[in-house]
Amino acid sequence: MDYKKITDEVGKKLLSYHQDTSGWRVIKISKNVTVASKPSKEYSGNLYRGEGIIKEVPSKIIPFMYLPEYRNKWDKALQSYTLLEKIDQDTGIYHSVTHSYGMGLISSRDFVDLVHVKPYPGGILTTNSVSVEYSGCPPSPSCVRGFNNPCGYVCSPLPENPEHSKLVVYIQPELGGMLPYSVVETAIPTTLINLITETRAGLKGLKDHN
Q1: Residue 46 has pLDDT above 80, yes or no
Q2: Alpha-helix runs per DSSP H in 28-157
Q3: CB 78, CB 51: distance < 8 Å
Q4: Of 128, 112, 98, 110, nearest to 190 (Cα)?
Q5: 3-state SS string over 134-182?
Q6: Can you name the residues that pair with 152 across neighbouring β-strands?
């Protein structure tokens, strides 16, 4: 599998999502996080965008969000999150297993994702992810295997306050199983809001601890 080619393609798509400001519809605002969506070009569902401000710089936020030694401590949505294979310094294959959601309305899901971290000029740092087939981690009967279409984080320093960053998260997951559309439409915005608020809380806890 040509991981470099895949991550290049995902990077281009993530950049296009970030640059194309047309067609977004705000669907939820909570805890200083705004979630918007628009029809995806990758599958029959939506591309979702969550954005909020975090009191930290991108070089601290992005590792905190994707490295297992941090993420396992703060992300309450995940049962486990492990590195399956390190491809190079900025690229790896990760396996995440979610808790069930909404009193069991959505059972546990797992994802095998290729993740590549890429910097851009101006102190911007991004993660670029997509689900991949990986022989070392076949689907398990204990959870439903989901598929992440091209997704990732774009973290930019605020020009007026460089110690703070704007974090924008793009996701378009296919959750698998027989889920009603309305359940997915409710669950994903909540998941994005929780991801950004838990990142804020986790980073604050890390600072306070140090």
Answers
A1: yes
A2: 58-66, 68-74
A3: no
A4: 98
A5: CCCCCCCCCCEECEECCEEEEEEEECCEEEEEEEEEEECEECCCCCCHH
A6: 128, 170
Tokens of 110: 């797992």
Model confidence at 196, pLDDT cuts 50, 70, 90, reads: very high
What stretch of H or E contains 188? Answer: helix 181-209
**Which pLDDT band, with edges at 50, 70 and 90, does 171 fall under?**
very high
- Run of H or E including 121: none
**In degrees, to the nearest 5, what angle opens at C-alpha 67 toward C-alphas 194 and 109?**
55
> CB neighbours (10 Å) of residue 77?
14
d(CA 195, CA 188): 10
Residue 208 predicted with pLDDT over 80: no
pTM of the predicted structure, to 2 decimals: 0.96
Instruction: Say if residue 156's pLDDT is above 80.
Output: yes
- Distance of alpha carbon 17 from alpha carbon 170, whole angstroms: 8
**pLDDT band at residue 206, thresholds of 50, 70 and 90?**
confident
What integer best gives the mean pLDDT of the chain? Answer: 94
Map residue 72 onto helix, strand or coil. Answer: helix
CA distance 132 to 111: 9
Q: Would you give the DSSP letter of residue 69? A: H
Give me the amino acid identity at 99. H
